[in-house]
Design brief:
Blueprint (H helix, E strand, L loop, with lengths): L1 H25 L3 E6 L12 H21 L4 E8 L5 H10 L4 H9 L10 H12 L10 E4 L7
Parallel strand pairs: 1-2, 2-3
């Protein structure tokens, strides 16, 4: 399980960059936005492989930002917390023995904003980072977690 999580979450990002960066470089620059997780900046009991992989993504991003800046390529990570997705629902089912809705409410309460985020909110952040409006942003960790990392 550990090797599989690392292969998908960490090696997958590395391979994506390996083949994407030369193409973006040929175009004269651009933006790369990598999806990490709140687990990329804090721990989570019972999720060591996942947390290690997402922390590793930050290291890969920061290295890529350093190496790619001379080519006009910006590289950042986005770190979602509780977002209304099937993956988060699966996480809640695995952690809470009570009814799904009770577990979901309990997770929402762990954020400062007391709610789940939406996929559209994550997409808006990613679109901003991909756009020229964020042309001075590189090497950044962008949290979209309702303040959960502060709790």
């Amino acid at each position: 399980m550990f090797d599989r999580v690392i292969a998908v979450n960490l090696k997958g990002v590395w391979l994506s960059l390996k083949y994407t960066i030369p193409e973006i470089q040929k175009r004269g620059g651009g933006s790369i936005v990598i999806t990490s997780s709140i687990a990329g900046v804090k721990g989570s009991a019972g999720s060591s492989a996942y947390c290690a992989s997402k922390h590793g993504v930050v290291g890969i991003m920061r290295t890529a930002a350093l190496e790619c800046a001379p080519f006009g390529i910006r590289v950042n990570t986005v770190h979602p917390g509780p977002i209304e997705t099937p993956m988060v629902e699966e996480h809640v089912r695995g952690r809470h023995h009570e009814a799904l809705e009770i577990g979901k409410k309990a997770l929402a309460e762990t954020t400062l904003l007391k709610r789940y985020g939406t996929p559209e909110e994550v997409a808006a952040l990613m679109l901003y980072l991909a756009s020229d409006e964020s042309r001075y942003c590189t090497g950044g960790i962008y949290m979209i977690d309702g303040g959960k990392e502060l709790v």
